[in-house]
Amino acid sequence: MIVAFIQTKGGVGKTTLAINLAIERIKRAGRNVLLIDADEQGTASDFTTIRRDRLGATGYTLEPALGAAVRNQALSLAKHYDDILIDAGGRDNAALRATLTVADIAVVPFQPRSFDVWTLDKVGSLIAEAREANPKLRAYAVLNCADSQGQDNLAAADALAENQDIAYLDAPMVRRKAFPNCNAIGLGVLEAAQPDRKACNELIRLAEKLSGLKKK
Ligand SMILES: Nc1ncnc2c1ncn2[C@@H]1O[C@H](COP(=O)(O)OP(=O)(O)OP(=O)(O)O)[C@@H](O)[C@H]1O
Ligand SMILES: [Mg+2]
């Protein structure tokens, strides 16, 4: 199964979710995971270098791929892995479009703020266009950096009701320091010396919702 983390907006948590879910899959599900870094910024690759230096082995395989090459890279490696996660970068470019031609599931992180919600219509149009070539593609918006409580999360989720192309996945990730803290040292939140239980539980809930979707 190929799961892509996409958004035309930067800084919404694509890389953070991709690396934490890759680590969740290897640690909790014993899966053989390929993480494709399709973002020219190379953040997932930088994270993986820090991780390798710290742990010796990363536990997943990292492959950088740029532009249209993402498609062939994913297709040619698919048979060797249980899960392929693609961090597709934050722009509408060749890599993002190539990613959408091969993904089974697109995870679209967004924050409960109006600018983020507005971008979902544009992302929905990209998804609709990609479905012409890739009819199996399913897209789910996931709240990230959500408030720990309050109406903004609900309002953001409601704003998706009108979106024909992206469904809302009810597995919000709250803004928690554990994410940047762990990102900086090459670890997933599940691996912290003193894990943030709430961050871990939210991540596990998201992972389980995603693996439930895959089986459908
Ligand atoms: N749930 C969260 N709680 C707190 N901080 C978070 C959370 N998710 C992501 N962040 C932080 O937000 C920042 C942006 O996250 P990240 O780099 O994953 O976004 P991105 O969508 O991949 O960005 P880009 O478009 O630049 O690739 C990072 O500093 C990250 O540590
Ligand atoms: Mg990123």
Structure keywords:
seven-stranded parallel sheet, alpha/beta, Rossmann fold, 7 strands, binds adenosine-5'-triphosphate, 216 residues, 8 helices, binds magnesium ion
Helices and strands, with pairings:
Layout: E1 2-5, H1 14-28, E2 33-37, H2 43-55, E3 61-64, H3 69-77, E4 83-87, H4 94-102, E5 105-110, H5 114-133, E6 138-143, H6 151-159, E7 167-168, H7 178-184, H8 197-215
Parallel strand pairs: 1-4, 1-5, 2-3, 2-4, 5-6, 6-7
Bound molecules: adenosine-5'-triphosphate (ATP) and magnesium ion (MG).
**What's the average pLDDT?**
94
User: What's the CATH H-level superfamily name?
Assistant: P-loop containing nucleotide triphosphate hydrolases
Please tally the helical runs, counting DSSP H or I stretches of 4 or more residues.
8
Structural class: alpha/beta
Small molecules bound: adenosine-5'-triphosphate, magnesium ion
Low-confidence stretches: none
Question: What would you note in describing this structure?
Answer:
- The protein is of the alpha/beta class.
- The chain has a single domain (2-208), classed as Rossmann fold (3-Layer(aba) Sandwich).
- 47% of the residues lie in helices and 15% in strands.
- The chain is built from eight helices and seven strands; from the N terminus they run E-H-E-H-E-H-E-H-E-H-E-H-E-H-H.
- It has helices at residues 14-28, 43-55, 69-77, 94-102, 114-133, 151-159, 178-184, 197-215; strands at residues 2-5, 33-37, 61-64, 83-87, 105-110, 138-143, 167-168.
- The chain has a seven-stranded parallel beta sheet, with helices on both faces.
- Helix 5 (114-133) links the parallel strand 5 and strand 6 (138-143).
- Helix 1 crosses helix 8 and helix 3 runs parallel beside helix 4.
- It is globular.
- The N and C termini lie close together (12 Å).
- The model has no long low-confidence stretch (mean pLDDT 94).
- The structure holds adenosine-5'-triphosphate and magnesium ion.
- Residues 14-15, 39, 43, 87 line the site of magnesium ion.
